[in-house]
Amino acid sequence: MFHDLIKIWFEWSRDLGYLGVFLMMALESTIVPVPSEIIMPPAGYWAEQGQLSLWGVILAGGLGSTFGSTICYWFSRTVGRSFINRYGQYMLLPPERMQLAERWLANFALPGVFLSRLLPVVRHLIGFPAGLVRMPFGPFIAVTFVGSTIWCAVLAIFGARTIGQHPDLLDDPTALNVAIKDNLLWFVLLILALGAGWMFVKWFSLRGSSVAVPPSTVPADTEPRP
Question: How is residue 88 annotated by DSSP?
Answer without folding.
Answer: G
